[in-house]
Amino acid sequence: MDIFEALFTRRSIRKYLPKPVSDEDITLLLKAAMLAPSANNGQPWHFVVVRDEAVRKALAERHPYAKMAAGAPVVIVVCAEPDEHKGAEFWVQDCSAATQNLMLAARGKNLGSVWCGLYPREDREGVVREILNLPPHIRALSLVVIGHCEQPFSEANRFSAEKIHYERW
Amino acid sequence: MDIFEALFTRRSIRKYLPKPVSDEDITLLLKAAMLAPSANNGQPWHFVVVRDEAVRKALAERHPYAKMAAGAPVVIVVCAEPDEHKGAEFWVQDCSAATQNLMLAARGKNLGSVWCGLYPREDREGVVREILNLPPHIRALSLVVIGHCEQPFSEANRFSAEKIHYERW
Fold first, then answer.
1. Cα A145–chain centre separation
2. Beta-bridge partners for A116
3. Domain coordinates in residue numbering, chain B
4. What does each C-alpha distance from B32 to B10, B131, B161 come to in angstroms?
5. What are phi and psi of B13, to 5 degrees?
């Protein structure tokens, strides 16, 4: 798939077919996520791959906007282990870029995905920390629900010339 | 270009040919950036496109790691106008995803780019605010330097199985 087709047709997909996502595809998505840029090349990310139905259902029940996790074949939680010697204060940006790479790679494999926010909502991060047994020094940024789509992807357009400024504001 | 080629060969590129980047390419990059996901679809991003040599040189001189901006054809500063009614606390994540889309679109046009961090370093954000005349309510997340590459792109591999956890941590 062309990079621009992936960029222009990646949408938030919340309904999935009852079809598993292969180990090979999950590894490819994680490989792409780990190729995001990071401050000082710190690569602070970690990933928790959740296929277990009980764990998915617990996440779906306790995150206010992740109901779709209950019926999806797989959920990937993007976490971070910030390193104070390697641009720790940029961990949110690093892991956001990794999340976006992961979602574009999903699009490249015709998988739908949706980004459910965790940090900086302490309640949501706390719920995920408890369910996934995250150590205290590990942060949880995003919960990405992934599955095969029910419907074909369509192109989006959110271009707004008013958001562009030239030379200075 | 295939989405996976773009994902796997996007590297930080800091040296550029003395060749301009077309208006058409810049618009395409911004269109891709604006298609990033955002909390509550808030789309908090703004972009300052800087071609003016004096402005680029000022940015290069005053950001500790953006020297390459002086010799690049274009710099795009990704800003935000967080909206408290639309997931304002997620603006860093939204604008990081937009920055990553922008860089992948650059790769798709065979343009090299590098992400220079601003927020949360107050000194860097302040310098950019002053040079670009950003209003007080506007945040500056990243400064992306863009240009045609001197060298061919090569594939990266940062895959680390130790970063992957299954079902729980």
1. 7
2. A143
3. 12-150
4. 15, 26, 30
5. -115, 125
Task: Give the pLDDT confidence of A144-164 residue by residue, as tens digits.
Answer: 999 999 889 999 899 999 999
The amino acid present at B77, given as its one-letter code, is: V
Can you read off the two tokens belonging to residue A44? 């602070």
- Does the structural domain B12-150 have CATH classification 3.50.50.60? no
Query: Two tokens at A79?
Result: 């976490």
B97 touches chain A (CB under 8 A): yes
Looking at A34-132, which runs of residues are DSSP E strands? Answer: 45-50, 74-80, 111-117
Query: Would you identify the CATH topology of the domain A3-150?
Result: NADH Oxidase (3.40.109)
pLDDT in tens, B48-95: 999 999 999 999 999 999 999 999 999 999 999 999 889 999 999 999
DSSP H or E run through A139: strand A139-148
Q: How deeply is B30 buried, as exposed, middle or buried, from its count of CB atoms within 10 A (0-12, 13-18, 19+)? A: buried
Closest A-chain CA to B46: A163
Q: How many angstroms separate the CA of residue A35 from the nearest CA in chain B? A: 6
